[in-house]
# Entry
Amino acid sequence: RVVGIFDVPGPTLLDETVIMHQTDLKEMMKIKKNDYLGMFNEQLKERHLFDYPPYTRIIKVVLKNKSKETLRTGAIWFTKSLKTRFENKVFGPEFPLIPRIQNRYINIIQIKIPINENLLKSKKIILKIDKITGTKITLTLVINADLLGVVCIKP
# Structure
């Protein structure tokens, strides 16, 4: 029987799904009990554990170039330079699911900045590292990538 259609006693489709698959049983039980506040608190604990917003800020560095090889080598060098300053908080570089748009290849690097660090100072460091590289790679910074707010674009 499907949930909410008939008022016939017996197991519901939701009950059978939980029994058959046993996938994420804890979350399914919270849904059945309408415990959305519990789910929210669980999400916040996980976000704190893995350093995701609102406990950290994510800066997404988008690199673009017409040459795939130039982009790849530049992105690797740029990532190594970022790791000297931001240590183990740098992730990437990686190609997105759609690696090329308008004849430009794209590479993405993500940096997790602790909430107590100065965001403007971190942005200046990233732009300074980009200036040192001197490559013809287009750099775009997306601050708070979880919220998709574009802050700085350098042609």
Summary: The chain has five helices and six strands. Residues 147-155 have pLDDT under 50 and may be disordered. The longest strand covers residues 104-114.
